[in-house]
Amino acid sequence: MAQLGRTAVTAAVRAVRSKNAAPRKAAITLTPSAVHKVRELLQENTSAIGLRVGVRTRGCNGLSYTLDYAQEKGKFDEEVVQDGARILIDAKAQMTLLGTEMDYVSDKLASEFVFNNPNITGTCGCGESFTV
Q1: Which range is most confident: 9-23, 52-66, 68-82?
Q2: Which of 2, 20, 90, 124 gets the highest tally of CB atoms within 10 A of its CB?
């Protein structure tokens, strides 16, 4: 029978630095044209601290991307800073956007951000919505 108040075994917690610690890859990467456009947008709107990227239920295939000016960082937002461009990823979109490349494309008819997302399993015909 064990006696109360006596310890048979002790344990200690020690912070150990892993020998194979590699820097964590960013959740989303930006192309040089996307970096330039994000920085340009943030210079025009000085009250914003960055662009917030998210997803919402919309379109014929389920999800679509949202881009808004961020006034503050949410508690669970993932922050990505690349070459002075600051992107905040909404907590609900983090798993959906993991590994995505954000590009900015401009031609005679349109200028838009394009998301090259490896997690997408299907898109609609117009390219506005997707499924993962």
Answers
A1: 68-82
A2: 90
| Length of the chain in terms of residues written | 132
Sign of torsion over alpha carbons 92, 96, 97, 99: positive
- Cα–Cα distance, 63 to 56 (Å, whole number): 5
Tens of pLDDT along 11-49?
Answer: 445 444 545 555 556 788 889 999 999 999 999 988 889
Distance, CA of 80 to CA of 128 (rounded, Å) = 24
H-type alpha helices, the chain? 32-44, 94-97
Nearest to 129, CA basis, from 107, 117, 15, 9 = 117
- pTM (two decimals): 0.71
